[in-house]
Structure formats: structure tokens, C-alpha cells
Amino acid sequence: MTETTEPKTRAQPAQPAQRTERRPRADGERTRSAILRAAASLATVDGLEGLSIGNLAAAIGMSKSGLYAHFGSKQELQLATVEEAGRIFADEVVQPALAAPAGLAQVAALCEAFFEHLQRRTFPGGCFFAGAVLEMGTRPGPVKEAVAAFQAGFVDLIRGFVTTAIEQGELSSSQDPVQLTFELNGIILATDASFVLNGSPAVLDLARQVVRNRLGLGADGHAAGSGQ
Amino acid sequence: MTETTEPKTRAQPAQPAQRTERRPRADGERTRSAILRAAASLATVDGLEGLSIGNLAAAIGMSKSGLYAHFGSKQELQLATVEEAGRIFADEVVQPALAAPAGLAQVAALCEAFFEHLQRRTFPGGCFFAGAVLEMGTRPGPVKEAVAAFQAGFVDLIRGFVTTAIEQGELSSSQDPVQLTFELNGIILATDASFVLNGSPAVLDLARQVVRNRLGLGADGHAAGSGQ
DNA sequence: CCTTAGTTAGCACGATCGTTCGTTCTAAGT
DNA sequence: ACTTAGAACGAACGATCGTGCTAACTAAGG
């Protein structure tokens, strides 16, 4: 043993190169990012458990052992993949919503950003976390915990937006933010399920209309009417 | 070749023992049922793809090859498992709803039957189809088609109930049955996701309240008002 | 009773799983 | 320039995957 007790743990990006311990090389970091991007995509198709080292290595054109060296175990790879998916989700869904004005518009922006996240087909299997929640929910362990934490954070985010909208009088104060948040989360899940199953973006228009109606917004601005 | 072209397909229970072809034995049918019941349960934990012949055989205490003889391939086992899950779902969720009076009460009864289906913990991994839809949605083939068909049938069922409720004047005719069905399906999915992830029946009460409010029903039947 | 055919088990196969090891190459710190 | 250690590789491991093949057992129709 040359140094500390922990053998391999990474995950401290904010370390001031103290003590000459654990210094990842630049090309390694680039490869690791490429691995995780591919892993997040593959996981939406094969699941986090169905994701195999061999397939993943073949997908990015490197050897199993070379890839494996970046993570000490499959579980570490899964955890890093969840992290990566969280970053992507934060970039594509949360950030656009944060850029919107607080209140009802922010709630709508969050939903819209999610729908565009699906429509843009960032992942071939729809929303990473929608699948991961149902897959890992029955598998206790650190991976489930990570997925649950992200999901809880997302729900908290929605509820915060909803609460603000109520405080600003844009939603009736008789509305329960918890219930409305639950409904919006349900709309999001139903949209993802239908989109994944049918592969058609038609459901996104339905979902947008449902969100507008539920939030008491007019039909987008101009063309109201038929829909469905 | 002794008879028809199809080599092994079962799935015709209503056959009058014609021609002395394909006569399954009583003990075989019992075993097959036991296999499928265990398969449906295991699939809600490991997924339809993660379900392995070895695990399943060990779970019911028989050999891999003995079990395998009941189905010619893993795909056939998956198809039979989806069928079995469909039967269970029809018994536990659809039937109670069909027993309710047509109209708004039937919509509520369907949701309530689903919540009780979860609460009773028929499957350790929550709703079979909620998981199967997201898992198989990205995997083209007969299994996905079977899951999609069941899901479509369930949505049609809800929409039929909703439409009847509107026709009977129990719901405003300004409501779009497609949109309301989408919302109810979303509530169901969100309930399952939360229940699977947290394992707590607390979310069921929230879901029940959300359904009542969405359908314009008073808080349970007597005390209207506060409800928060 | 005897025959027939559906069960079931045992064994083994090629493939793939996650994982380990030893080695080579190369980026980076001195 | 020399040294150090991360990065990537090929090969191989034990285990398990789905899938066959064969033989013993047994319920059921004649």
C-alpha cells in the first residue's frame, strides 16, 4: 500500500492536485466522457442492468479491459452513467426552465423542455430516468439510491415552480402544489411511455395541450380548436 | 412431419381435442401455470429481458431443460408471461371496474382497482405493464407488440369509461376524453413509479385524492371542503 | 394391460457475462 | 532526458446465458 485506504474512487473533480494522488490524464478523461455518453444512450435501450461491458466497449471501439479500467466494477460504471445522464438532463431540461421567468411560465417551460428533450431524441430510448426508476426501483443498492435522489430532486424542482406560481397568483391558491406536481409528473411519464412505445412525436402535441389546459393557459396563442 | 406446419405453438385452449393432436397433460398444465405465475412476478423485478431460464427454474424448483420444454424459446416464454400478466391484470383491475355502474363511478373504480392492485402487492415490482412498456418499447419484436397491444387496450378501456361519463353528463362535455384519459394514465404511471421506488403506500392516498379532484368528486363521499 | 406421447431431468454446447492479470505505450512531472 | 504512472490492450478465468439432445418416467386412451 502506498497511500490512502480507498483503492480507486474517482468522483472528486474539485481537488487541487493535493499530494500528487490520483491525477487523471487528459486523454483518459476524454475517453471516459465518451464512454459515459455512449453508456447513457445504450442504457435507455438495454437498461442499466442490461448494459454490458462488451457491448459498450464495442460501441465506442475499444477493448473491454481498457474500458473496464476506468471503473473498478460494473456498479461503478452504472453510478457514473447515472451521473452523466443527470448532467445531460440538467443541461437539456432543467437549464432551459431556469432561464424562464419564475412562476407559471417556468412550469410550462420545464414541461416544454422535457418534450423537446424527447423530440430531439437525445437518447434512443426516451427519458433515461423514467426507465431507470422502474428498472432499479426493485433493486436495492447505491444505483437505485442515485436514481431515486435525482427523481426526488426533479419532483422538488417542479413543486418549487408550482409553489411560486401559486404565490404569484397565477394559479388558484386552492390548488395543492403536491397534487399538481404529481399530475405534471404523471403527464411527463405518460408522454415518455407513449413516445417510447409508438415512436411517434404525435403524443407530444397531445401532451402539450394537456399541460396548457391543466395550467389554465390559452391554446398556445393563436390557433385554438380541433386538436386531439 | 406428422401434422401441421407449426411445430410447438400452444395458445389454443378452446380446442375440442380434435384429431388427437396436441393434448397437454393435466400435470403439465399445472406446472406451466406455476411457471408463468412465477415468471410474471420475477419479470417485475428483473425485467422481461433480465428474466432468465435458470433463475426461473430454480425459483419453482425444477430443471432448466424441464422448464424449457414448455416453451420452445425464451421469446415464447416472454410472450406467455405477458399473456399471464394480462390475465392477472384483467382479473384484479379490469374486472372490478366492469362490475361498477357505468359512468363516472366506473372511471373511479378502475383507478381504485389499480391502486389496490399495487397495495395488495400482487407483484413485487409493482405494475407489470408499466415496467414492460418502458423496457420493451425500444426492442422491436412480438413481445413489444404484445405489450403495446395490451397497453393500447387499457387506454381504450379508460377512454370508453370516460366517454360514457361525459355522455351521462357526469363530466363536462367540454372535456376531451382523449386528454382526460391521457391524464388518468399519467396518474397511474406516476403512482406506480413512486410506489416502486419508495415502497410506501403513502403515495396511494395522494393518488386517490388526485383522482377524486380531477374527476370532480367530493373528498370521498361525505366531508367536502378543506381537503387541502 | 399396453402403448403412446407429454413431462421432466441430465448433460453438454457455444456464446457472453463481469472480472483479473500482465504487458506495452505514452502523456506528464522532475 | 529520465522517470513515473495513467491508459489501453490481449488473453484468459469461472460463471451463467439460451439452447439443444437423449433418456427415464408417467399420465392417459385404446
Can you characterise this structure?
Two copies of one chain form a homodimer. Chain A is mainly α. Helix content of chain A is 66%, strand content 0%. In chain A, helix 1 crosses helix 6, helix 5 packs antiparallel against helix 9 and helix 7 crosses helix 8. The termini of chain A are far apart. In chain A, 38% of the residues are buried. The N terminus and C terminus of chain A are likely disordered. At the A-B interface, helix 1, helix 6, helix 7, helix 8 and helix 9 of A face helix 1, helix 6, helix 7, helix 8 and helix 9 of B. The structure holds a DNA duplex (30 and 30 nucleotides).
List the helices and strands and how they pair.
2 copies of one chain form a homodimer.
Chain A: H1 26-50, H2 53-60, H3 64-68, H4 74-99, H5 104-119, H6 128-136, H7 142-167, H8 177-198, H9 202-215
The structure holds a DNA duplex (30 and 30 nucleotides).
Largest β-sheet summary of chain A: none
Identify the biggest protein-protein contact and residues per side.
A-B, 46 and 45 residues
| Low-pLDDT residue intervals, each spanning 5 or more residues of chain A | 1-20, 221-228
Rg of chain A, Cα atoms, Å = 20 Å
> SSE string of chain A, helix = H, strand = E?
HHHHHHHHH
Percent strand of chain A equals under 5%
Count of alpha/pi helices of chain A: 9
Based on DSSP secondary structure assignment, what is the total number of beta strands of chain A? 0
Oligomer: homodimer
Structural class determined from secondary elements of chain A: mainly alpha
Average the pLDDT over all residues of chain A and give the rounded result: 89
- The helical percent of chain A reads 55-70%
Shape assignment of chain A = elongated
End-to-end Cα distance of chain A, whole Å, is 66 Å
